[in-house]
Specification:
By secondary structure, the protein is α+β, with helices and mostly antiparallel strands. The chain has helices at about 5-25, 30-35, 40-45, 65-80, 80-100, 105-115, 230-265, 280-305, 315-340, 350-355, 365-385, and strands at about 120-125, 140-145, 145-155, 165-170, 180-185, 190-195, 210-220, 225, 270, 270-275. About 50% of the residues lie in helices and about 15% in strands.
């Protein structure tokens, strides 16, 4: 379908597609097996200027365009969801600074993130605080011109490799979620160390680590916005970043669909291509329709964010939920079309299934997304009476 992309957006799409095909696809299996962070590919993405897509021009970027970010993420994810999330996760860690940072913070951190010289990460998840942000146990105690952080974050994408971290910690436990605050923490700060690197089912090229804070002393000027704003920082960040997760899922689904079509045309059974079988054709038709429907929802939501519409929580949740459910269904169907070969690691399709699964889980499980959608719907119905 024609989504009426601008000339700039078409250029971004072509550039990301070229990187995906020439630089990512040839090494996707290697990084999946080695589970190493793909610094060589990250440098290619940085040199192409794609890290600037989610950072304002005055700080070295190309203006904040969520649709532009989604277009790039989708194309990169077609070749490897794991490598693509290294890029997209830096956007997640950067958005809080873009949205809530003061001019001094933006001047200090955004230029290096825009150039790709450094990557970012966002840290809210803890062993007992995933979807329930109010259960956060990491604390930040004010002492003069500093905050002292203590606690543990886990499942942090880009953890250990990122240089700049947005960390949510409790400054007033008595206020529940309203007692959370957000801070910028730099790698190398005394008292800030890393735990184990997780061994994952999918997206293995990306690093997922524990962050450990032990009397970690950070300047008070690293507080984002003001005390008690951590939950709002998180929710507003997710409103901007969830379309990016949806775009990752969309790209994985599109890549799997393309592999399935190609294989169906080449695979011979009963003296003819299996693409001539009605059963296979119907599967491909459903897969293509679901992917296109997901793309329409993702692009529309991204355009809403870029237009400055304030409340996009419901739409962002819908895009993330629907696109990731589509990714899971399409990749599993694609593997089915490959038959027994699809189950073997000699063929790339099993990796797409593994990479797709996480998109239904991180940045809020799809069950949580359904809660958000339903609550927004109920509130709107109540206001309309």
């Amino acid at each position: 379908m024609d989504y009426l992309l601008s000339d700039e957006q078409k250029m971004i799409k072509e550039l990301a597609h070229k990187i995906a095909e020439e630089k990512i696809r040839p090494v996707a299996a290697k990084y999946d097996q080695s589970e190493e962070y793909p610094w060589d590919v990250i440098k290619v993405i940085a040199d192409a200027g794609l890290f600037g897509l989610f950072i304002p021009e005055e700080y070295g970027g190309m203006s904040v365009g969520v649709l532009n970010l989604c277009i790039a993420t989708e194309e990169l994810s077609r070749a490897c969801g794991g490598i693509a999330v290294c890029y997209a996760a830096s956007a997640l860690g950067t958005f809080p600074i873009v949205l809530f940072g003061n001019d001094e913070q933006k001047k200090k951190y955004l230029p290096d993130l825009a150039s790709g010289k450094k990557v970012a990460a966002f840290a809210i998840t803890e062993p007992e605080a995933g979807s329930d942000a109010s259960a956060t146990k990491t604390t930040a105690k004010k002492e003069g011109d500093y905050y002292i952080l203590n606690g543990l974050k886990h499942f942090i994408t880009n953890g250990g490799d990122a240089e700049t971290y947005t960390v949510v910690a409790m400054t007033d436990k008595t206020r529940g979620a309203r007692g959370a605050s957000a801070f910028i923490v730099e790698k190398g700060t005394p008292g800030f160390t890393f735990g184990k690197k997780e061994e994952k089912f999918g997206i293995r090229a990306s690093s997922t680590r524990e962050l450990i804070f032990t009397d970690c002393k950070i300047p008070a000027k690293n507080l984002l916005s003001k005390e008690g704003m951590g939950f709002i920082v998180t929710m507003k960040t997710f409103d901007m970043s969830r379309p990016g997760v949806a775009a990752q899922a969309l790209g994985i689904a599109q890549g799997a669909l393309e592999l399935a079509v190609r294989y169906a045309k080449e695979r011979q059974q009963f003296g003819k291509s299996i693409s001539s079988f009605q059963g296979i054709q119907w599967m491909l038709a459903d897969m293509a329709t679901e992917v296109e429907a997901a793309r329409g929802l993702v692009y529309s939501t991204a355009r809403m964010v870029d237009a400055g519409i304030k409340d996009v929580s419901r739409e962002s949740a819908m895009a993330k939920m629907f696109a990731s459910d589509v990714a899971m269904k399409v990749t599993v169907d694609a593997l089915q079309i490959f038959g027994g070969y699809g189950y073997m690691r000699d063929y790339p399709i099993e990796k797409y299934v593994r990479d797709a699964k996480i998109t239904q889980i991180y940045e809020g499980t799809n069950q949580v997304q359904r809660n958000i959608i339903a609550l927004q719907l109920i509130k709107e119905m109540a206001r309309s009476k």
